[in-house]
Task: inverse folding
């Protein structure tokens, strides 16, 4: 069924190409902080920066479970393990302020812009979820409003229907209900956080995970596919139209230069010399062609002469054989009467 006009196959020739009406993934859900914006290490960096302000260093074993823990649990764990002289509420407030500074203008992930535009062109309905409130979301997308118009549904952390955040599957269930006919068979999720993969798996959705570098593979077992970057993703793996190859950029034309009269005269002389040289070359090629033609004709004349000589020899031999036959017949005729005379003489003697 076509995603725009809701008509059954054969493909609708009015609103979309034939590939968009084939049975495949029809809906995609993107997580803003881990699949659209490259903010995978920002919260981790904020924790390290705030701990360094207290002259403390957070060990790697404490940083690893940050992704699967709630923010309050994470702050309490770091304050206790690192012996930070502050309450966990104060530490969490400072971490959130530092993270908001770092993500005020985050960059897009590699390949996400091309992928989103391609999916929208193929009539695939897109949804966006965010762990930020709507006000912070508007600050994050400032200057990129045209790109985020490709998403038809948005669910923020302060959405009135959202009661439980990740790793609970509520946010994905709400997104599917707002997409219309989305179900577990025709919906694909792009998420890079461990809690997001857990939530999508609990909602029985296929997840493409783009995690942080160095994350152990045991944390991505619930994902359908793990990628280092969205540039590696190929839509045809899930029955969607493949990414079209971009046309090469046209070569820049050389800018016109103002020439002096002396340079123009030199160019005219060089052009005349080139033309005269080309004429001489054409004449030489014609002479070579004529010589080759005469060389080709000579062997033909010799062949014709040899053929005529052989024909003459054949006719001469035929004539000689005919003359020899005439001589034989005349000799035979001359001998016949002598034989009769001998027979007559013999009969008279008897």
Result:
């Amino acid at each position: 069924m076509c995603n725009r006009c809701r008509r059954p196959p054969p493909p609708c020739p009015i609103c979309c190409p034939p590939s968009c009406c084939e049975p495949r993934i029809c809906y995609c859900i993107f997580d803003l902080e881990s699949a659209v914006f490259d903010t995978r290490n920002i919260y981790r960096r904020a924790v390290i920066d705030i701990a360094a302000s207290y002259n403390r260093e957070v060990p790697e074993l404490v940083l690893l479970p940050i992704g699967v823990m709630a923010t309050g649990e994470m702050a309490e764990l770091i304050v206790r393990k690192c012996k930070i002289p502050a309450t966990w509420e104060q530490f969490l407030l400072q971490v959130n302020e530092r993270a908001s500074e770092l993500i005020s203008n985050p960059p897009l992930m590699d390949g996400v812009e091309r992928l989103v535009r391609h999916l929208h062109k193929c009539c695939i309905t897109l949804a966006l979820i965010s762990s930020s409130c709507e006000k912070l979301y508007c600050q994050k997308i400032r200057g990129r409003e045209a790109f985020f118009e490709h998403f038809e549904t948005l669910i923020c952390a302060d959405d009135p229907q959202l009661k439980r955040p990740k790793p609970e599957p509520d946010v994905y269930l709400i997104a599917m209900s707002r997409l219309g006919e989305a179900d577990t068979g025709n919906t694909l999720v792009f998420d890079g956080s461990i809690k997001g993969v857990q939530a999508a798996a609990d909602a029985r959705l296929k997840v493409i995970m783009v995690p942080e570098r160095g994350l152990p593979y045991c944390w991505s077992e619930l994902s359908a596919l793990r990628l280092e970057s969205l540039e590696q993703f190929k839509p045809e793996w899930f029955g969607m139209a493949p990414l079209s190859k971009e046309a090469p950029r046209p070569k820049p034309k050389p800018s016109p230069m103002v020439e002096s009269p002396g340079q123009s005269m030199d160019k005219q002389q060089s052009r005349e010399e080139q033309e005269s040289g080309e004429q001489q070359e054409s004449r030489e090629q014609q002479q070579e062609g004529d010589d080759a033609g005469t060389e080709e004709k000579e062997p033909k004349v010799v062949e014709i002469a040899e053929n005529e000589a052989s024909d003459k020899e054949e006719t001469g031999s035929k004539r000689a054989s005919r003359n020899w036959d005439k001589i034989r017949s005349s000799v035979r005729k001359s001998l016949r009467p002598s034989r009769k005379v001998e027979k007559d003489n013999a009969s008279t003697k008897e």
